[in-house]
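Dissemination and training. As part of the outreach component of the grant, students in the summer workshop were shown how a complex can be specified as a set of sequence lines and then modelled as a single object. The example used during the hands-on session is reproduced here so that future cohorts can follow it. Participants entered these lines:
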Amino acid sequence: MADGAATDARGNGITGVIPILFAGALFVYFMSLVPTVASLEAIRWSVPWIPSLGIEFAFLVDGLSLTFCLLIAGIGTLVLLYSNTYLAGHPQYARFALFLTAFMVSMLGLVLADDLILLFVFWELTTLTSYMLIGFSHEAEKSRRNALQALFVTGAGGLAFLAGLILLAAASGTTSISGIIAQGDGLKAHAMYLPILILLLAGTFTKSAQVPFHFWLPNAMAAPTPVSAFLHSATMVKAGVYVMARMHPAMSGTDVWLWTLTILGAITAVFASLLSLRQTDLKQALAYTTLMALGTLTLFLGQESGYAMTAFATFLIVHSLYKAALFLIVGCIDKSTGTRETDQLGGLGRLMPITAIAAALAATSMAGFPPFLGFIGKELKYAGAIAVASEPIFVAGAVLLSNALMLAVAGVVAFRPFWRGQVGTGQSPKEAPWQMLAGPVILAILGALFGIYPDLLQVALVNPTVLSLTGEVEEAKELQLWAGVNIPLFLSIATFVLGLAIYAAHVKIRAMLDRGFNAIPNLDLKWDGFLDGLKALAAWQTRLVQTGKLSSYLFATFFTIAAGIILTLAYTGMPPLAADFSDVEWKHTSIAALICAGALLTLFTSSRIAAIAALGVVGIGIALIFIVFSAPDVAITQLLVETLIVVLVAVVMLRLPSLPKATFNLKHAVLSVAVGASITLMLIEVVATPLDLRLTEYFEVTSWPEAYGRNIVNVILVDFRALDTFGEIAVVVIAALSAYALLRTTRKGDQQ
Amino acid sequence: MNSVILRAGTSYLAGLLLVFSVYMMLRGHNEPGGGFIGGLTGATGFVLYAIGCSVGEARKALRVLPQTIAIWGLFIALAAGLFAAVFGDALFTGQWLFIGETEDDKGLPLSSVLVFDIGVYLVVFGSVLTLVFAMEEEI
Amino acid sequence: MEVLFAITIGVLVAASVYLMLSNHLLRFIFGLVLISNAANLTIFVAGRLTDGAPPLIPVGADAPEIAANALPQALVLTAIVIGFGLFAFAIVLVFRAWTSLNSLTPDEMRLAEPEEAHK
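and obtained this result:
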C-alpha cells in the first residue's frame, strides 16, 4: 500500500540478489562459530585503533553476541529475500537494499563490539541507518515526520548514552567491555555508578522504546513492512536490551538497577499489551506487542536469578522468530488484500493456506501454547518471575497479564483474518510468491522445532548466553516442555483461560480501552507540541543573537575579549604595575607619540587623504620601532608593505564616496577604551613574567653550524620553520587569487 | 598619468629595483633580506612601472601572467621541501652542496633552502602584482 | 621601555576597535589595518625589546654574543605579509560591495538576511 510497487516474483535483478547472498554468507559464517561458542569459549579479535587513548577495534563473539548475530544475519537474509519480491521493481530498491544491508552490518558491529567507543559508533550507525529506513517512503509527510521523531528520540538518548559510556570508561579506567566486566563488582561501589547507570539507561530505554519513550516505535511503522519485521523483531529495538544484557554482569544487583528495570519493564509490558489490543491495524498491533516483549526482556534483566537469565535468553530468541514471521505475514496479507485492518479481513485461510499455516504456527508460539518454543519461554518467564526474591507477585502478575493479552493479540492478528468471517468485497487475495513465504515459514517452523527439541537451542545458544550474563553456566536452567506439575504450569493454564476470554471479548474490550486511553495524555501529540515549541525557541534566540548587524556582532566579540582578559586578570590577582620608565630614551617616546598621533588622527578625521596619511604614519612609526629594536628584516618588510597599502588604498579610494562625518558613540568609546586598556594590562603582565628563551637560543646556536645561515630570522623562515612558511605563502596566493576573482566577476557582472 | 619624465624614470627605476630585489633575496641567508623582502621589492618596482606608464605596458614587460608566477612559486617551494624526502630526511629539511669546498672556505653553497626562498620570492612577487594589476585595471 | 609600547599598543587597539565598530566600511578597513599593526607589535614587544643587536651572526663566530629575539621577528615578518593579503582582499570586498550594493554601511546590506525575516 504505502509501498506502492506491484508484487513481482522476478525481483530486482542483481541489485536484489547480492545483498541476499551477502547476508546469507554472514549467517553461514556465524553458524560456523556455534560449535566454539557452544563449548563455552569466546572468540576475541582486535587491532589498535586509537592507541593513545587505549581504544581498540575489538570484537567479541560469546553466547550473547552470537545469539544476536544469528538472529540478525538469519532474519536479515530472509527479510532481504522477502523485500526483493515485496518491493520488486521499486525504482529505489538499490537504495533500500543498501540501507537495509548497512543497517544489518551496523547492528552486527554493535553486538560484536568489545570496546565502548566502538560500541557507540555502531550504536549511532544503527540510529542513522534506521532513520533512512523508517523514512524510506520519503514522499509521504508522515513518513518523514515519524523518521525524524525516531531519530530525535533515539539520538537524544544516544547523547546520554555517550556521556554514560565516557563516565564508565573513566570510572573503570578502560574502554574494553570485557575488561570492565572482568573487574567484577568494583563498578557498583564506584561513586559514579548512579550517574553512569542513569545515562546508560536513558540511551537504552529510548532505543528500546520503554515507557515513557515508547511513542516513537509504533510510528516507525511508516517503514515498508519488511523493515518493520527486521527493525522490530531482531534488531534496532533490541540494541538497548542488548546493551543492558551486556552490562548486566558489571552493573546489575543493585537496588536501583533492580527497581528501575523491573518497574519500567513491567509497566511497558502491560501498558503495551493493552495498547496492542486496542489497535485494529495488524501492523500497529504487532508493533505494540514488540514493546511488550521489550518490556518483558527489560524486566528480566533487572533480576539476578538463573531462571530469569534463562528466560531472557529463551524469550529473546522466541520473540525474534515469531515476531519477524508475523510481520512478514502481515506484509503478505497487505500485499494481496490491500488492507491491514482487522475489521475488513477474514476468511483468508482457504485462499492463502501456506500463509495461514505459517501464521498459525507463529501465533501459537507467540501465544505460548505447547509444544512450541513460546511455551517453554513462557514457562521460564513464570519460573523467573517467581524467583524474584523481593516482589514475586508483582512481577508474576505483570507477566501473567501481559502474556494473556499477548495470547489475545495473537488470536486477533494471526487467527481471525484467516479463519473467521468472509473475504472482504472487491478482494481476490492469493498466495504470495515463494520468496515472500520462505521467511515466515522457516521462522515459524523453527519456533516449533526448537519447542520439540529444546536441547538444540539449550546447548548452542542459551547456555553460552547465560554464561555471558552471569559468568556461570551452571546458572542456566533446563529448557523443557514438561517440567512437572508446578506453579509455572498453573500460571500457564491461568494464562490460557484469561487470554482466551480476552480474545472472545476483544471487540468490547477495545471500545473500553479506547475510552480509557483517550483520558491519558497522548505523548505522540505532545511530541509535536514540543517540537513546535523548540522551533519557536530557536527562532526567538536567532532573532536575539543573529541581529544581522555587523556592529552588534563586533560589539559582542570585542566585549567578550575585554571581559575575558579583565576577569582573568582580576581572578589571578594582578601584581602591582611595575612601570619602569628609567630606560626610556627620547627616541622611544617620540616614536610612541608618532604612532599614537597617527592612530588618533585616523580616528577623528573625515578626510580620506588625511586618513590614508595617518595610517602611513602609524605604519612608519611601527617600522621605526623595528629599526630601533634590531629587526632590520621586519622593518624592511613593514616599509614595503606600507607602500603597497597606500597604493591600493589610493586606487580604491578614488572610486569610493567620501567619508561621512564621524559621530560620537559613547558605548563604543567605552568598549574601545576597555579593550585597549585590557590589552595594555595583559602585555604588561606578559613582559613582567620571565621569558622562556630556549627556542630562540636553539636557533641562535644552530643557525650557522647546522643551517649555514648568518641571518637567523631568514634561517627560521626558510629552514627551521619552512613548513609554516610554505603554509603562509599558500595563504598569500589564495588571498591574491580570491581578490582577483572578486574583481573579475565585477566586470563580468557588469557586462550581463 | 602622462608625464614623460615619470615614464622614463620609472622604467629605469623598475629595472633597478628588480635587480636589487634579486640581490636582496640571494643575500637573505646571511644578511637582512630574503624571499619576502625580495619579492616585495621586485613587486614595488613593477607597481611603480604600472603607475608611471600603464598596467598594459607593465604586463607586457612582465610577459607572464602574475598569477602564473605566484603558483609556480608555490610549486617550486613545495618541490624544494619535498626534495629532502629523496634523501630520506623529513620534509623541508635543507639539503646543501658546497662547490669548491676547502679547509677554510665553504666554497659556493647551493641548497634546497635557496630554492625554497626563490619560491617564496616568486609567490610574494606574483601575488602582489596579481592584486595590484587587477585593481588598477578593474577599478 | 616595554611598558611604554604596551601603552602605545593600547591606544592603537582602542582606536581600531572604535573604527571597526563604526557603521562604515571604510572606517572598518582603517581599523583593520591598525589592529593588524597592533597585533604584530604585540608579538614583537612580548618577545622583549633589544636595542642595537640584530639577530645576525658575525663572520667567524658560530653564534651571536648578544642578539635580539629572532623568533618573534620571524613570526611578525610573515604576519605582515599575510596581513597585507588580508587587507587587499578586504578592500576588494568593500569595493565589490560598493559597486553591487551601492552602500558602504554594513547594516544596510541585507540581501542575504532581509529585514522582513526579523519580525
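Chain B has one domain: 4-138. Students were then asked to discuss how this feature might be tested experimentally.
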